[in-house]
Automatic annotation (TrEMBL):
Any one of the GO CC terms: endoplasmic reticulum membrane
Superkingdom of this protein's organism: Eukaryota
Subcellular location: Endoplasmic reticulum membrane
Annotated metabolic or biological route of this protein: Glycolipid biosynthesis; glycosylphosphatidylinositol-anchor biosynthesis
Protein name, per record: GPI ethanolamine phosphate transferase 3, catalytic subunit
InterPro entries, A to Z: Alkaline_phosphatase_core_sf, Phosphodiest/P_Trfase, PIG-O_N, PIGO/GPI13
Amino acid sequence: MQKASVLLFLAWVCFVFYAGIALFTSGFLLTRLELTNYSSCQEPPGPGSLPWGSQGKPGACWMASRFSRVVLVLVDALRFDFAQPQHSHVPGEPPVSLPFLGKLSSLQRILEIQPHHARLYRSQVDPPTTTMQRLKALTTGSLPTFIDAGSNFASHAIVEDNLIKQLTSAGRRVVFMGDDTWKDLFPGAFSKAFFFPSFNVRDLDTVDNGILEQLYPTMDSGEWDVLIAHFLGVDHCGHKHGPHHPEMAKKLSQMDQVIQGLVERLENDTLLVVAGDHGMTTNGDHGGDSELEVSAALFLYSPTALFPSTPPEVSRFLRTYSAATQDLQAKELHQLQNLFSKASADYQWLLQSPNGAEATLPTVIAELQQFLRGARAMCIESWARFSLVRMAGGAALLVAACFICLLASQWAISPDFPFRPLLLIPVAWGLVGTIAYAGLLGIIELKLDLVLLGAVAAVSSFLPFLWKAWAGWGSKRPLATLFPIPGPVLLLLLFRLAVFFSDSFVVAEARATPFLLGSFILLLVVQLHWEGQLLPPKLLTMPRLGTSATTNPPRHSGAYALRLGIGLLLCTRLAGLFHRCPEETPACHSSPWLSPLASMVGGRAKNLWYGACVAALLALLAAVRLWLCHYGNLKSPEPPMLFVRWGLPLMALGTAAYWALASGADEAPPRLRALVSGASMVLPRAVAGLAASGLALLLWKPVTVLVKAGAGAPRTRTVLTPFSGPPTSQADLDYVVPQIYRHMQEEFRGRLERTKSQGPLTVAAYQLGSVYSAAMVTALTLLAFPLLLLHAERISLVFLLLFLQSFLLLHLLAAGIPITTPGPFTVPWRAVSAWALMATQTFYSTGHQPVFPAIHWHAAFVGFPEGHGSCTWLPALLVGANTFASHLLFAVGCPLLLLWPFLCESQGLRKRQQPPGNEAEARVRPEEEEEPLMEMRLRDAPHHFYAALLQLGLKYLFILGVQILACALAASILRRHLMVWKVFAPKFIFEAVGFIVSSVGLLLGIALVMRVDGAVSSWFRQLFLAQQR
């Protein structure tokens, strides 16, 4: 089996998974059709004519304008209780003191003094509560769809009928200032605009101060009809500090002053609207549909008395949308149209007969409210309609991909299985199916759907592979071998997959995962004790037939695995302290250690925590260096090890310096703020650049060995034996005689060479036994530093626990994995399952949750404090790297599961065992010391080595694949569940993206091992040629 075949086969399996995920997503997360129709001011919203306005005049609207000018102040994330009047507390109870209460005192004063001129409403917004989707809803009157939340990074121009378009068409001068998201939504629509970068959530003042510089001069100039000011300070303060921080009181007080200044400047024909686009959670996040997120404030004020509302314009939209898409229920649409016609007729009669207004007005209001509720419910049902065919096809492809992983992982270790022909067959058939499908669409003139094209390619490649593999090879094997997962592992896996079908368990997964991991660890210890494998892995050779002699006792008792298990449980418990509570559990309190140091108030506590974070960073660096020094790779003069000696300390220094600047940026003197801002931009980029340089050096020179050459007598060859003392059976002789024969041949050849020269060139190579693991550990460390920068400072403690957990788990798993030579090599299912479970546990321990409000948006500005301009892919990449850091690290490090048992051979006997009484001879012959081969045993059977890597990759993909399959099935079966968009849909999206990141990381990790293997082969060839010369 060749290296390219392994990577191509894994890439093909990943493609089948990707096709299934894309097909299921296209049927589950549907987007609505955006109509390009525009209404006209002259067209009435319903049947008949309305008896007001200026009918008959050219260009007159069906409704006369009440105000000549409007000032819209949009305070991002203005939750309703931020603006709610603070009533006096109940006698006998302590007053409630929260930073955000009572700070908008001007609203309360206006409501009390001028009750007929002002109104304060609780605005119930529709999820997703992200800014761009809420702006679309506010300006178009439509409902945002769930999948649109993903475009919050990349705002697209609105093509629907919208308020800004209608104002500009009517000749109104619209002036905007604030969030630059409006620039992308309404390009070129404003007569004057002042845009400010909006995505830097750490900046509380730039946007607000920029607005204030232009707001009052623009109002005084009078060159406007509609003035829109979108403030971001409250939203950014929530993201950075949360609503309970003193900074929130400052921002709300600033907004109160803005409102007071506007009220003083308003003229009688001007309407002031102060609104929030959404709310925020207790952590300051938004994006979901919790009560605090969908509750926003809406305040109206005018120097003249306000007036009751008029009939809404919704009926025409329903008729137009139904004609364009045929997607609304005809019966329900007809009922709504009849209800609207009756309400319009009653309203006309009310205007013509004002005497009966008191009795008729409540009826008209009730009819209009019923119409609006019915229209909203029908649109939600239509836009949440699922394509069951696509969902079933996507789930079927996921099942097929899991089946491929399960079958091929069993067939991979068989030397006679023809992987290369079976790889070419599906690729060829996949191309044929793709070309045929594209040609058919071209003939019938249908639009090409890339999702369906990928699904056709996946099916066209999967079916021939399965038929050829089963007919030619698989049918000869018993069916029992097709399901090799051990019972206990299968039971835990099924239990974990079953919880995806319960919203309560999905919400509580952050607490359930450490429990499952701890149970798995105890199961491993018990199983190893039961199997008698509580010792470091050792070389298993040909059994000694015909003898009943006892073997040497194990070097470690059951306490060895018990200590490892206790250490793992302790690390798991400590990592659980860094937890983030989901919003569905209000009784739970998130760990305060997840917040950045900049949010801390006390200087002494901040300094202590900073010292602890730097200590964790240095401990991580020291642990990696000590590990490399223990196995000798740090002594190598190759560029990667030179970088580890000098580059890693520079990366640690840059990280610590960046943390110091980020934690005290707000406290820096004004004259140094420019310097601090520049350093905050340079330091993360420098750390990332150093990490990239280190990875490039590692790929260039991955063989980290120390070579010593010199002339002299060759070392005496050591004969390896699996027993002590002289041979006692025919099996012992069969094992020893070939080695003695090879030894005699080499000795004779050496004597012939010594007759021709002064002496042979002897080469001693050290650290070859850990050459693969050293490259993997170095690569993981270089990846960890940039990922650590994207998190809050105190997450460095979690990263230290992550490396320690991985080290302990690898040793515990290696204790039960025997090394067989010359193969086949295999990694048991329990090891792969535990590794994947630890990746999930680390995801939660780094403060993440599979919901959109829990995304760490601040990661987008690490190294880019001023924002990214028009670039959208880079902030998305940074936020994605922050969210799925654990998936990436564990996937890249997955090959360590195969390498670690060989590495642990160094804990075995390092000296050739001597017969009793020969200890003195052993002491005087130090050259007889036997250097353990460790990972070099993999090179003795390259076919088995590559097959083991393929099997490991397939097993890991299977574990991840059944998780995404379970999420897809749960989302499809429970698609009408109350919590589908709050729990199951986000869980599916996060699992899907996590699978893609993990699969890419797995391919990169296996490719790195193969790069090292190729470099080792090249190194041996050069060494052989040098010795020949």
